[in-house]
Amino acid sequence: MSTYKLYYFNNRDRGEICRLIFAAAGQKYEDIRYEDDEWLLHKAEMPLGEMPVLEFNAGRNYFEQAKIDAVVDTIEDLITKLIPVFDEQDDDKREEL
User: How many whole angstroms separate alpha carbon 96 and alpha carbon 85?
Assistant: First the structure.
């Protein structure tokens, strides 16, 4: 059985897209959330010292690692496209985006 662990801060931001995808797929996962004051204690445990991190069976082989990378890259692409929409204050400009 596949096991997923999502590591992120206790807020929505970048981790929320992963949570929404899991919810839409009906996929169980472990949602590991850190408060801001806990982050420095765990930063060294994370790849590149950044989050969100999605762990999938700990990437047992290169194929699984590639699948994980594809999911993460897709989420990053979505976030990059959506951030300007959420940041735009002008409703007309937001509609254009």
Answer: 9
Amino acid present at 70: A
Q: Kindly state the tokens that stand for 85.
A: 């929409």
Q: Is 1 helix (H, G, I), strand (E, B) or coil?
A: coil
DSSP 32: E
* Domains of the chain as residue ranges with CATH: 4-96 (3.40.30.10)
Give buried/exposed letters for 57-82 (b at 16+ CB in 10 A, else e): eeeeeeeeeeebeeebeebeeeeeee
> pLDDT tens for residues 26-50?
999 999 999 999 999 999 988 888 8
The C-alpha atoms of residue 40 and residue 37 are separated, in whole angstroms, by 7
Asked whether the whole model's pTM tops 0.70, one would answer no
